[in-house]
Amino acid sequence: MMKTPEILALLENGNYQNAKESAKSALLKEPDNALLHYYVAWSYDGLSEETEAISYYEKALEMGLPKDDLADAYIGLASTY
């Protein structure tokens, strides 16, 4: 299983499909990981599947994200709406 820095690297490199699959797989073992929810949302956005991203953004924000990711998550969700 990939760790969050590896998933982040996939996202930053535009490898959204692999990032989505890795983050969703990791969520099976860590369903309470807000960062993983955010990464799934980000990957859906990158794949132009915005509707799928909404629930993941909302869950990540509800659970509480690190300060560094919070603004980007709100921007991602707002642009998705």
UniProtKB/TrEMBL annotation:
Superkingdom of the organism of origin: Bacteria
User: What protein name is recorded for this chain?
Assistant: Uncharacterized protein
Which species is this record about? Listeria grandensis FSL F6-0971
